[in-house]
């Protein structure tokens, strides 16, 4: 039993539940939050008769912020994310399980608790040995006494006993795993005949009543999105840089500071052989000096390939061994270096080609330096200007008043939707569109946004001037578009009639290839596909589903993006469950199903505990953490 419990507890889901219980949202339990004046200021929640104090919540909250690397999070952002509530929900969930474990008489012996503490990686050194000093340091930093920590560990072990006993042995029957695997991986093939929609087919024009009826059934297709208008101020480094004067002295100084950036190092094509000792290196040197080829000698003496002797084109800094680098960059092209000893042993090098290095002249990079200097100065100016703008707005000035004081211009956008489009279908000309749109649609009408910094060293602040709610327009407002949609629909219906007649011909025995030839199109094979994906022909969802409901030879049809598709099922490939690869995949699926079953059991436990536990949460106390 204990072995089964440990195995189940080792599953991914169990670990997440057991050790991540602190951050589980207790909202899933259906518990309501409400004020509890009797406990105001000191108690965040009562779980039955047990108190969760504001100190308990504060410690857990700070621990969660550290875990998420959110130590510097803005209080408003933390409130929007509901972090403190999530942490409290986890503490409540933990306490409910603890109480159930206590009621069942589950506990842990001193030996088990000591073992759990000593096996904690936090308290072990590099050799895996428990270090009392690390344990005491942890207690000091966390402000917890040893007795309190031991008591919490005893509770944790009891909690795990309860949860492990619940999910121990949870597994999926092999027949279920096999059936699901075969269902997911069954492959089929079909022959496809596509009837393209004739975009030039004459279908006439609809009458008023016909068009009105069509619009009434399709009016959601013509719904107008929400549009917002705004006034805004935008300052950018790129704009300010255009007006900044850069002197020749500044350009020259910047060139000297960045000379490494404009300097290309000398590169050499180098051959190198590494040899075991000085005698072998000298013998190799003598043979090469006598006229033998460097590569031939190197291959013979080292056993390496010719490719491994070639370092390619390298700079001096590219060569790790400084002695080899010095020899390579002091040797004459075509010569061989004297035997030398490096960090990897004795070596010889030969240089086959030299590409001279050098610095780009100032005149070649003058414009680039000028732009960079102007942009850097502009970034500083933008920052100062943004600070002044923030001060003006913070002091109660309107956008127009702040613009007048700082010499800026208020820009306007009459209407834009959340896709950045105007009512005329064009893209709105606004700074940092994604960020601007998100800010605009998060700002109430008549309200100024915060000053936002963009990715390109700019700043903007906007005021939402108008909001046009999403709506379904009147027919007369969109009549041309509705007529166009009606015509398109009629052309699809005409193609559908043709497809239906072809399906009827197929049912009467006419081969698919003959029908395709009559229409001057080709039959396409899908290749193998499953219920979810695959095949070399995009299949409409309804066609794919129908092909998995029929038998070989069955015919189905469906509407694609610009055609009607007729499909004849040609082959069914059953999964080979006898192969070792398939058996392993079925076993993995069984493990995944077991995790799901364990999750279902834990959900049922939560539901049962919810019915018998009285939970009271003081939201005012929770809000103190922000």
Q: How many strands in all?
A: 17
Using only CA atoms, what is the Rg?
38 Å
Output mean pLDDT.
84
Tell me, briefly, the overall form.
extended
Largest sheet: 4 strands, antiparallel
Fraction of residues in helices?
40-55%
The number of helices is 24
Strand content: 15-25%
First and last CA, distance: 46 Å
What class, by secondary structure content? alpha+beta
For the biggest β-sheet, the strand order reads: 14-3-16-15
Uncertain residue segments: 1-40
Question: What can you see in these coordinates?
Answer:
With about 625 residues, this protein is of the alpha+beta class. About 50% of the residues lie in helices and about 15% in strands. The protein contains 24 helices and 17 strands. The strands form five sheets. It has a four-stranded antiparallel beta sheet. It has a four-stranded antiparallel beta sheet with strand order 11-4-13-12. A four-stranded antiparallel beta sheet has the order 7-6-9-8. Strand 8 and strand 9 form a beta hairpin. The chain is extended. The two termini are about 45 Å apart. The N terminus is likely disordered.
